[in-house]
Predict the structure of Membrane protein.
Amino acid sequence: MQLLSLIWGILAIVGMIVGFIPCFGSLNWLNIPFAGVGVIIGVLALSSADQENRSPAMSGLICCALACLFGLFRLIAGGGVF
């Protein structure tokens, strides 16, 4: 589950980077829910992880959260939300 969280986070970050390219900003409409599911997976992986081995789950959770925040910022700045 921790590895899934990490891979999901990496894919969300890649989607966010592609969403920052002009003319691909609408990709954030798909990437934000994708990263939201990744946040849920990260929280579940973090809660089921040992105290010593939490770094993949934490990394995936942080990547997904950043992808959500920056994707939402890009949508607001580009006029896609309002």
